[in-house]
Write a structure and sequence with these properties.
It contains nine helices and 23 strands. The chain is α+β, with helices and mostly antiparallel strands and 405 residues long. The protein folds into two domains: 152 residues, no CATH class; 168 residues, no CATH class. Strand 11 and strand 12 form a beta hairpin. It is globular, with a radius of gyration of 23 Å. The relative contact order is 0.16. Bound molecules: zinc ion (2 copies). The site of one zinc ion has 8 residues, from loops.
């Protein structure tokens, strides 16, 4: 899969810096400043025009997703890795997708002060994902009941330049695309909410540490974990699972609470009754809330679901701790919102016979309540990370995926 690269001027020293779209901390090699890259919603990029043509320069929006579509029906679980883009407008005559343009050219962040006319997206990313899931190329069509999820490793808006006069001209190739079709009323100035946020610990002022691709950064001075918010960092609620072995690495999982309507899924007992899991309901299960747990890092699709199911069905013992462990915390590279999007298919995967689950959840829905981070301890040998309590092994090269994807 392709990773896009972009150029950005260092907000502190002004040097031009090249970075990958997957980076969440801007690290300037010239002045050494480190800043969280935070957008309220998907990141927005634009490509500068390469030609000049008569008319008004307009940036046209495309939704872009790199990730995985999952489709579960009563027969099987199918998945497909996607690298897709779609024109986020109904204007005729504009190219229907980005094609290879974004891969061949440098991208730039759309910032609140980026000049120019932007065509406002005609539909949100949720609709884009629905369109992708309606017809996933290469998957067996499903006619009966199904559960679907679309989990984006990268979800963004990419703006392409066109010039509109009597005709529309492609701002990259100079090709004539057709007669003018963009209404002036649909144009706006930049609506990007991009912020570069200090990575100094808000509590003690020390430098936060972590991989530049990680959405959370840790303060090893006051033992806290932080994520970017529009107006600064906020502390992330983290828990560390206990283990009888001394870990060499912690892998992060989103602990996701949902409110079900139309069916009951508050406690462990509710889960067992809903999915017909072959377990005896014990008293603690009637009172203990159930939460889903999905990897907070990118990993191969089949493994992503297997780990989600295995970890969600494990009732861990957790005791609060005052300090962060001094072994590596694996980077958090999957946003919590994308983890939440995996939950419908995960619920289906937890059911030994999905056919029995479908009628029970038919008219229901799940709404997210909260997301916290659970770090799970692993040891390692030359090839694998091992988790003894869950009897779980993960090939090391499967985790490489999470840093290269
Ligand atoms: Zn700099
Ligand atoms: Zn601190």
């Amino acid at each position: 899969m392709s990773t896009l690269s972009l150029n950005h001027q260092c907000p502190q020293c002004g040097a031009p810096v090249e970075l990958e779209e997957t980076e969440r901390v801007f690290a300037c090699p010239f002045c050494a400043v480190r800043l969280f890259i935070h957008a309220h919603g998907p990141l927005q990029y634009y490509i500068k025009p390469r030609i000049h043509a008569p008319g008004t320069l307009i940036y046209v929006p495309y939704w872009r997703l790199r990730g995985t579509a999952y489709v579960l029906d009563s027969e099987s679980m199918q998945h497909k890795i996607l690298d897709s883009s779609l024109l986020a407008s109904t204007s005729p005559c504009l190219p229907p997708s980005l094609g290879l343009r974004s891969q061949a050219l440098r991208l730039h962040f759309v910032e609140p002060e980026t000049p120019g006319y932007f065509l406002r997206p005609g539909f949100p990313s949720t609709v884009f994902k629905k369109k992708l899931l309606n017809a996933v190329p290469g998957l067996r069509p499903v006619h009966g009941p199904k559960l679907t999820s679309c989990v984006g490793d990268a979800l963004s808006l990419v703006f392409l330049p066109v010039f509109q006069d009597q005709e529309i001209t492609d701002g990259l190739t100079g090709a004539l695309l057709g007669p003018a079709c963009i209404a002036e009323a649909d144009l706006c100035s930049s609506e990007a909410a991009l912020h570069f946020i200090s990575t100094l610990c808000p509590r003690c002022g020390w430098d936060l540490q972590g991989d530049t691709k990680s959405l959370v950064q840790a303060c090893l001075h006051c033992d806290t974990v932080w994520e970017a918010q529009p107006h600064g960092c906020t502390a992330v609620e983290v828990r560390f699972l206990e283990s009888k072995v001394t870990p060499t690495r912690y892998l992060p999982f989103w602990n996701l609470r949902f409110k079900a309507t139309g069916f009951k899924l508050d406690t462990w007992a509710d889960l067992i009754r809903l999915t017909y899991l072959p377990r005896v309901i014990q008293p603690w299960m009637e009172s203990t809330p159930f939460s889903f747990r999905v990897p907070a890092f990118k990993i191969q699709p089949a493994l992503f679901l297997r780990l989600s199911a295995q970890v969600s069905l494990y009732q861990p013992s957790i005791s609060p701790r005052d300090t962060l462990p001094r072994v590596p915390l694996h980077p958090v590279t999957l946003p919590k919102e994308e983890g939440m999007d995996a939950v419908p298919v995960l619920l289906g995967k937890l059911a030994p016979t999905p056919k029995l689950l479908f009628p029970k959840i038919h008219h229901g829905r799940l709404a997210p309540l909260s997301a916290t981070l659970d770090y799970i301890p692993f040891t390692e040998d030359t090839k694998e990370f091992l988790q003894p309590e869950m009897n779980m092994a993960i090939q090391k090269n499967a985790l490489l995926w999470s840093t290269t994807l």
